[in-house]
Amino acid sequence: MKTMLTVISNALCRITGKNVGAQTVPEGARVAVTRNFADFTPQVTFDIKKCDLHRLEAGPPVKAELTREQGLQYYRTMQMVRRVELKADQLYKQKIIRGFCHLYDGQEACAAGIEAAISPSDHLITAYRAHGYTYTRGVSIRQILAELTGRKGGVAKGKGGSMHMYAPHFYGGNGIVGAQVPLGAGIALACQYRGNNQVCVTLYGDGAANQGQLFETFNMAALWKLPCVFICENNKYGMGTAVERAAASTDYYKRGDFIPGLRVDGMDVLSVREATRFAADHCRAGKGPIVMELQTYRYHGHSMSDPGVSYRTREEIQEVRSKSDPISLLRERMLSNNMASAEEFKEMDVEIRKEVDDAAQFATSDPEPPLEDLCNHVFSNNPPLDVRGTHPWSKLKSVS
Amino acid sequence: SWTPSRKHQRTSGPVEVTVRDALNQAMDEELERDERVFLMGEEVAQYDGAYKVSRGLWKKYGDKRIIDTPISEMGFAGIAVGAAMAGLRPICEFMTFNFSMQAIDQVINSAAKTYYMSAGLQPVPIVFRGPNGASAGVAAQHSQCFAAWYAHCPGLKVVSPWNSEDAKGLLKSAIRDDNPVVFLENELMYGVPFEMSEDSQSKDFTIPIGKAKIERQGNHVTLVSHSRFVGHCLDAAAVLAKEGIECEVINLRTIRPMDVESIETSVMKTNHLVTVEGGWPQFGVGAEICARVMEGSAFNFLDAPVTRVTGVDIPMPYAKILEDHSLPQVKDIIFSVKKTLNV
């Protein structure tokens, strides 16, 4: 219960821009000190790109308001995700993280922008490139990194790994491409069933967009007007396959056919926020599902086993980094409008690095799960049962 | 790893080849031999294969014979089966067999049963191949062994090679077979080199489907396994030999149709049987072997019940210590042999 409150509190802090680290956070996370100097601009209205629309008369606003507090909070969130992913890269190369590891650096504006537009009582589900969402949905970076290193302090006690992290109203973390989409519509069905005005944000990639189960889901979501925001994170490559080689139509925002859609600049956290708010409002108004395509980019290859340069050029990666990096874009906007100082950003960067280093220290020193836990969690709310080990004389125990 | 090019192999004897390269050679040779053969799957062409098994094939054979698909397993498996029905000989790759669950209806209902349902009018000469079973640290959704599920179905052949000769000879046979074959590879074996005999380097080298191989002779106990765990059995046998216990190690090679006769012949000699597999125990390969032995002539030769060594009956955990304890280790096989022999 306390953990759940902490998780929800953290998520609320991220959205409202209030200081994270109010008393409910147990691990002594650093408080982001925001100095409200009188000479900083407290709020600016920015022009954002108009979205391409499908079966919609009007789209999200073309202006977005940003307060200083919000800006610093979005920056902090994105930079934290960035640093965690880079730390994961490092730990993977040291073989401290093993198995699959799909990194999210480059796509931070999507996770940060979506979370800024929904509330912790809304629901979110994504695929395997999930570390960013695990964080924005309220799991601490210690628990994320410790899950990656397979320790008992991990959010899934070390049993899930990179692709299987969960939190209240966050349904992972899913390893089978596209399978999370019907799941998301099911969560939306539960929201509708209960009449609680909540929505489910259901994410998938450009590769998953060609899965049949998506089209079955679109049909049912539209028929039953499920409050489901389908979001395609189009990062231009499904593993090693560029979108043009996989999809007869790369207008992913139109692939819902009879479902209205919008295409959004996924590198701009404000565009993502405004579009998500618009989409969530659409669902909450009972209009049924909506499809959003976020145009984004991943700097890393598909996973740590993929160098990411056999199917795209280093020049392309470098170009995105220098012209469209989501964190740089936000920082430049705030600096050029005098919303914060360069020193403040530098200080935050230092703090964030320290937090990530501390979390990595925990993640590498925490013990592995005990063998007694091997067979637990097979069934829920069930009396203890015997589990066969590797041979008939090995009788193991499983509790719920 | 480097393997000698064809020209240098003409006069040489045995040569070291990884399982990956053996599979690659098998496909290369069969693509060359029969222009109806083609490969389709995710990342098989321009990426050279997710695990590099199809390296170089797209460069050599082009878009028509090596086809990259979108991430649409049910769709492309169905397409592959349809192509087979129309007379082509597709190799349909699943990036791992975990993803075959998306397409399993096409494998079972469209491929496996059709020759029967049509009373012999419509064969389906297709190979479904890809890595099966546990890898390292890939967690629950990516670690399942599908040998038992597929081998349950009449109309399918299910093959599970262990070493490079197995891989090459059995894949060539699978491709030449006019029936649907599920070909279960193992990711952890791809990079392992094995000596391949001079015979096995011939383009006509095939290994018959449905015949097991005795990898090691012994008199005291029969160990039966498939895929990666054959190696574990041989390791256990080496340790046990030092204590005077001689194991006969049988490499099943094919799960369906299973070579029960080889198992029975061995059991009639050794009187003791231990099965070893990576999959879960319930309704598994070992369970089937137990049933078949009980139903046949070898039952009366058993001096002890058959022992099954299997994966632990849980979804695969991620943490290394838990994963290590979820699968049979060599020491589990040694322990089980001794218990079975009551020593």
TrEMBL record, chain A:
Domain named Dehydrogenase E1 component is located at: 77-371
Q: What is this protein called?
A: Pyruvate dehydrogenase E1 component subunit alpha
- Keyword Endoplasmic reticulum on this protein? no
Stretches the record annotates as Disordered: 357-400
Q: Which SUPFAM superfamilies match?
A: Thiamin diphosphate-binding fold (THDP-binding)
Q: Which residues form a coiled coil?
A: none
GO terms of biological process kind = glucose metabolic process; pyruvate decarboxylation to acetyl-CoA
Q: Which InterPro entries match?
A: DH_E1 (IPR001017), PDH_E1_Alpha_Subunit (IPR050642), Pyrv_DH_E1_asu_subgrp-y (IPR017597), THDP-binding (IPR029061)
Instruction: Indicate the enzyme's highest-level EC class.
Output: oxidoreductase
Q: Which PANTHER family match?
A: PYRUVATE DEHYDROGENASE E1 COMPONENT SUBUNIT ALPHA, PYRUVATE DEHYDROGENASE E1 COMPONENT, ALPHA SUBUNIT BACTERIAL AND ORGANELLAR
Q: Which GO terms describe its cellular component?
A: mitochondrial matrix
Location in the cell? Mitochondrion matrix
Role according to the record: The pyruvate dehydrogenase complex catalyzes the overall conversion of pyruvate to acetyl-CoA and CO(2), and thereby links the glycolytic pathway to the tricarboxylic cycle.
Under Gene Ontology molecular function, one entry of this record is: metal ion binding
Q: Which UniProt keywords apply?
A: Carbohydrate metabolism, Glucose metabolism, Magnesium, Metal-binding, Mitochondrion, Oxidoreductase, Phosphoprotein, Pyruvate, Thiamine pyrophosphate, Transit peptide
* Enzyme nomenclature, EC number: 1.2.4.1
Q: Which cofactor does it need?
A: Mg(2+); thiamine diphosphate
Q: Which reaction does it catalyse?
A: N(6)-[(R)-lipoyl]-L-lysyl-[protein] + pyruvate + H(+) = N(6)-[(R)-S(8)-acetyldihydrolipoyl]-L-lysyl-[protein] + CO2
Pfam families attached to this UniProt entry? E1_dh
Taxonomic lineage of the native organism: Eukaryota, Metazoa, Chordata, Craniata, Vertebrata
TrEMBL record, chain B:
Q: Which reaction does it catalyse?
A: N(6)-[(R)-lipoyl]-L-lysyl-[protein] + pyruvate + H(+) = N(6)-[(R)-S(8)-acetyldihydrolipoyl]-L-lysyl-[protein] + CO2
GO MF, one annotated term: pyruvate dehydrogenase (acetyl-transferring) activity
SMART domains in UniProt: Transket_pyr
Cofactor(s) needed for function: thiamine diphosphate
Identify the keywords attached in UniProt to this record, alphabetized.
Answer: Carbohydrate metabolism, Glucose metabolism, Metal-binding, Mitochondrion, Oxidoreductase, Potassium, Pyruvate, Thiamine pyrophosphate, Transit peptide
Quote the EC number: 1.2.4.1
GO CC, one annotated term: pyruvate dehydrogenase complex
One GO BP annotation of this record: pyruvate decarboxylation to acetyl-CoA
Q: Where in the cell is it found?
A: Mitochondrion
Keyword Mitochondrion attributed? yes
Q: Name one Pfam family in it.
A: Transketolase_C
Q: Classify the main location.
A: mitochondrion
Q: Which residues form the Transketolase-like pyrimidine-binding domain?
A: 17-192
| InterPro entries to which the protein is assigned, alphabetical | PDHB_mito-type (IPR027110), THDP-binding (IPR029061), Transketo_C/PFOR_II (IPR009014), Transketolase-like_Pyr-bd (IPR005475), Transketolase_C (IPR033248)
UniProt xrefs under SUPFAM superfamilies: Thiamin diphosphate-binding fold (THDP-binding), TK C-terminal domain-like
Give start-end ranges for the coiled-coil region(s). Answer: none
The record's note on quaternary structure and interaction partners says: Heterotetramer of two PDHA1 and two PDHB subunits. The heterotetramer interacts with DLAT, and is part of the multimeric pyruvate dehydrogenase complex that contains multiple copies of pyruvate dehydrogenase (E1), dihydrolipoamide acetyltransferase (DLAT, E2) and lipoamide dehydrogenase (DLD, E3). These subunits are bound to an inner core composed of about 48 DLAT and 12 PDHX molecules. Interacts with DLAT.
Reported function: The pyruvate dehydrogenase complex catalyzes the overall conversion of pyruvate to acetyl-CoA and CO2. The pyruvate dehydrogenase complex catalyzes the overall conversion of pyruvate to acetyl-CoA and CO(2), and thereby links the glycolytic pathway to the tricarboxylic cycle.
Per its record, how is this protein called by name? Pyruvate dehydrogenase E1 component subunit beta
What gene makes this protein? PDHB
